[in-house]
TrEMBL record:
It is found in: Endoplasmic reticulum membrane. PANTHER family: ACYLTRANSFERASE, DIACYLGLYCEROL O-ACYLTRANSFERASE. Pfam families: DAGAT. Keywords: Acyltransferase, Endoplasmic reticulum, Lipid biosynthesis, Lipid metabolism, Membrane, Transferase, Transmembrane, Transmembrane helix. It is a multi-pass membrane protein. It is an enzyme of class 2 (transferase). The keyword Phosphoprotein does not apply. Its EC number is 2.3.1.-. InterPro entries: DAGAT. It comes from Tegillarca granosa (Malaysian cockle). Belongs to the diacylglycerol acyltransferase family. This is Acyltransferase.
Amino acid sequence: MTKFLGIEFAPLAIPLERRIQTFAVLQWTLSFLFLGFGSLFLVLYTLIFTKYWYLVLVYGIYYYYDRGTSARGGRRVQWIRRWKIWEYMRDFFPAKLIKTADLDPNKNYIMGFHPHGIMSTGAFLHFGTEATGWSEKFPGIRPYLLVLAGHFQFPVYRDYFMTSGAAEVTSASMRYLLTQNGTGNALGLVVGGALEALEAFPGRFNLKLKNKKDIFDQMDNPPGSLLRKLQDFLTKYLGFSPPVFHGRGVFNYTFGILPYRKPINTVVGKPIDVEKMSNPTQEDIDKLHQKYLDCLKELFEEHKTQYGVDKDKHLCFID
């Protein structure tokens, strides 16, 4: 390991498997950050500047008739979900899915995922791939990673993303999966959204509704600061947060867009049975919401010390 001008460089003699793990995380990070707009640029370039413009028109017709698929469970491809590259990505951190109770495949589930973090890496690995052993741990349960509908407006990228089992996090999409797609569906919601991502700092356990160690560092943005005001403004009007973050690099451990090698341990608690109500009152909603928060806090307290969290640390539910 070498340090130069404050930058800690990775040693040359690194096992090949660790280099492959780094590449696996790099391709996912680049896809997360650039593949959507990159696909849009490629389609526009092909349409305007090449002789293959007719391919874009053909795709446009397909896109028009297929536009509702992301609200009807997407189009998962199990072969892609089982790609070896996701296992290398899992081992980079490593990421683990911890089961505490069985899930009945004759029921449907809405599963809150915490914390949101910068890129929701854990949620993608657990719900969007088979790298952490979802199908073996929960047989008969189909996981769906629910994300902003805007992801599915990017041509080509939308088709690739749907192969992971991703679908829209809209009321129509959730209603379809819960009432028209049979049973055994697990809807993964990364609760907290854009604003909780702005609270993603190492050592904090803030939930917008726990932030464990995050795998990125974020520029300090206390409430009232110029950066936080700008982020809140963009979140309000664009629907997503623009955290100013950094992780490590491919060849250094000091600065870059790759996440750090920190364990991602996701504990799945026992289900909360919910009685179906056609017209729930606000009191019914508040009571269920409080029960969820109480169970979440109990789950955190029960397992935190097993995964490196100090016993004096607790969840903080922020406004």
